[in-house]
């Protein structure tokens, strides 16, 4: 019997303490992220007894024929040794190949060294999170941000009567309506990635209050033209899950970005960094995220276990 349980919103109380104990500033360690994308990746979990500890195993896969993808096993008692992690994962996987992802370089190296079966370790550049200094995004100072300031000034000059409001439950239907209009404009029906993201956004709004998400929206003449959602991921890192704007409003993306960072820093004075997630290999998105000059990347590695030996 498999004994894994499909992840639902009701599992937050079980899973979140493990995620918080892991203390990682990568988006995969947000329960909101796991829940938002669980409809796409069929995410499930199990708590297993191993080596005198209780370990949380979280796995996912898009298609039934795909190998299972696990996060590094987590414990409420702190760091799980690599040998213990492999023992737990091998126990539930048997001889079937699987992968462990969202790993730091150190974790990937330790798993590789501890494995007694063939493994393949690789860097996943498309999954690197972009992490910025909060003060950089809040102030946009210096020559490197001149173009961002130009877009901001264009927005504020063109729309001096804009409104910025906190998203609350009563705003959710209007935000979803705006998101649907954005999807139609951007061609979600022809782009599987955008269509899946739209499904994730709907799940985020479905669990908005329960997940502890916070958001802002920009309005012009009473209509939403941009919105964003995020949360406090670790003590000093704010995670931005979603940011959408109609492209015809020049500077709206820059405005909602900056305003949300100001909001986060004012509400949570300890915030030093803003994680704006990965680029999924989209070169246009990569260029845009690089243009904000990240302080560093939250690098991600994957280790594939039980791989055929190379002859």
Number of strands: 15
Taken in chain order, the helices and strands follow as EHHEEEEHEHEEHHEHHEEEHEHEE
Give me the Rg, rounded. 21 Å
Biggest sheet statistics: 8 strands, mixed
Structural class: alpha+beta
What is the CA–CA distance across the termini? 35 Å
User: Overall 3D geometry?
Assistant: globular
Domain count: 2
Do you know the CATH architecture of the largest domain?
3-Layer(aba) Sandwich
Mean pLDDT: 95
Q: The CATH topology of the largest domain, please? A: Aminopeptidase
As a percent range, the share of helical residues equals: 25-40%
Helices, by number, come to: 10
**CATH H level of the largest domain: which superfamily?**
Gcn5-related N-acetyltransferase (GNAT)
Low-confidence blocks of residues: none
CATH class of the largest domain: Alpha Beta
Beta content = 25-35%
Describe the structure.
With 311 residues, this protein is of the alpha+beta class. A hairpin with a 7-residue loop joins strand 3 and strand 4 (68-71). It has helices at 12-22, 31-41, 82-93, 105-114, 134-139, 146-158, 172-186, 192-206, 252-267, 283-290, and strands spanning 5-6, 44-50, 53-60, 68-71, 74-75, 98-103, 119-123, 129-133, 163-166, 214-220, 223-234, 237-245, 273-275, 296-298, 301-305. The chain has 2 domains: 5-128 and 300-305, Aminopeptidase (3-Layer(aba) Sandwich); 129-277, Gcn5-related N-acetyltransferase (GNAT) (Aminopeptidase, 3-Layer(aba) Sandwich). The chain is globular, with a radius of gyration of 21 Å. Helix 7 runs antiparallel to helix 8 (192-206).
Descriptive labels:
single chain; 311 residues; alpha+beta; Aminopeptidase; 2 domains; eight-stranded mixed sheet; seven-stranded mixed sheet; 15 strands; globular
